[in-house]
Write a structure and sequence with these properties.
This protein is an alpha/beta fold. It contains 14 helices and 16 strands. A seven-stranded mixed sheet has the order 2-10-9-8-7-5-6, with helices on both faces. It has a four-stranded antiparallel sheet with strand order 12-13-16-15, covered by helices on one side. Strand 3 and strand 4 form a beta hairpin. Helix 10 runs parallel beside helix 14. The chain starts with 5 loop residues before the first strand and ends with a helix. The chain binds pyridoxal-5'-phosphate.
């Protein structure tokens, strides 16, 4: 990060960790396809297999059940297919049930036909309605159909933590299988595939300080398998064709290891986030803090101040050297109404103003002070404008 910038948009992408960057540069000096049998190939393979172990450790998984992909999106789309196998025999899903607050890579339903994708509502804090899930799964099971359920662990816009273990218990009770997207949870809260009880989870390198363009699928067991998205060579044990992106995977593994260590410092991240939150509450008492009634990951706060448009605030903050995000995870670069906040029942006036501030392990107290200073000015300008209009 430039010394003059304050980067508070870690949920969009964490800066590449300095120690990972240094090791990557070193690895990039070497040739080698991880499938080749010569020394260079074996060296590349060693990096990939080390990364497989490092990623498995981060989520309490077994390295044998880790499949590398190009990112969190590809990982989710690969898993969200109606075509799986169980013990080598075909296992077909008739329905995909997703929560109403999923990232678009899940919300779009992966490879399920649109008419077979159903959305389970959430409450005002963005937590999935477990009773609705239970009831719908009971109906599906009674009709002789089978469902796959996908509910994320931590929300990218609000940080709300979903009751994934309950989702797994309910879903398994109806013979359904469960996927969870842990992209925003790893490195922020402990993630254990066994404790979550899910059948498969997906994660991404660039949210934990690894390079962009690497992700992983981790299965709980190899009894289950999904139809690969990319078909061709036999890489990744026939789970994902194409030459492995050895450098990105290497960086992912190193970042995963570091992210595991970050967990012991999360109280400091939480304290800084809470300081920002306390400032917003005191400087703008009419502000709405999203998902404030539930446990959130310690690095995220999302809110809206009445009368302050997200676009105006983003630009003003950016011009003063502070990077945050609008509440909407809009990949087109435009600020639009967030489907996540809409699903939570947030009123249109607040939707327009949704801002997300997300911190990371290297966010400093000085960064927090700078944000408070600059955002304080944005709020003061707003008060002045509102005063002029009222006069
Ligand atoms: N899932 C969540 C919750 C995310 O926040 C993101 C990225 O914003 C993704 C999935 C997609 O990951 P990637 O950018 O690696 O495709």
């Amino acid at each position: 990060m430039g010394a003059d910038r304050v980067y508070l948009d870690w949920n969009a992408g964490a800066p590449l960790r300095a120690e990972v960057a240094a090791r990557l540069v070193e690895a990039m000096g070497r040739a080698g396809n991880a499938s080749s049998v010569h020394a260079e190939g074996r060296a590349a393979r060693a990096l990939v297999e080390a990364a497989r172990r490092q990623v498995a450790v981060l989520v309490g998984g077994d390295p044998r059940f880790v499949t590398f992909t190009s990112g969190g999106t590809e990982a989710a789309v690969t898993v969200l297919t109606p075509q799986w196998t169980f013990g080598g025999k075909p296992l077909a899903f008739d329905r995909l049930l997703v929560s109403a607050v999923e990232h678009p890579c899940v919300a779009r339903g992966g490879r399920f036909p649109a008419e077979r994708v159903e959305t389970i509502p959430v409450d005002g804090d963005g937590l999935v309605d477990l009773a609705a899930l239970d009831a719908r799964l009971a109906e599906i099971a009674a009709s002789g159909q089978r469902a796959l359920v996908s509910v994320m662990f931590a929300n990218n816009e609000t940080g709300a933590i979903q009751p994934v273990a309950d989702v797994s218990r309910i879903a398994h009770g109806h013979g359904a299988l469960v996927h969870t997207d842990v992209v925003q949870a790893v490195g922020r809260i402990p993630v254990s595939i066994a404790d979550l009880g899910v059948d498969v989870l997906t994660l991404s390198a660039h949210k934990i300080g690894g390079p962009q363009g690497a992700g992983a699928i981790v299965r709980a067991t190899d009894l289950f398998a999904f139809q690969p998205l990319l078909i061709g060579g036999g890489q990744e044990s026939h789970g994902r064709a194409g030459t492995e992106n050895v450098w990105a995977i290497h960086g992912f593994g190193l970042a995963a290891e570091a992210a595991g260590h970050d967990l012991k410092d999360v109280d400091a991240v939480r304290a800084r986030r809470d300081r920002i939150e306390a400032f917003v509450r005191s400087a703008a008492p009419a502000a709405m803090l999203f998902a404030s009634g539930v446990t959130r990951v310690p690095n995220t706060v999302a809110f809206a101040v009445p009368g302050l448009s997200a676009e105006t605030a983003l630009i003003a903050l950016d011009l003063s050297g502070v990077s945050v995000s609008s509440g909407s995870a809009c990949s087109s670069g435009k600020v639009g109404a967030s489907p996540v906040l809409t699903a939570m029942g947030v009123a249109p006036d607040f939707l327009k103003g949704a801002l997300r501030v997300s911190l990371g392990p290297t966010t400093s107290d000085d960064d927090v002070v700078r944000f408070i200073e600059v955002f304080g000015k944005v709020l003061a300008d707003l008060t002045k404008r509102q005063g002029t209009r009222a006069a």
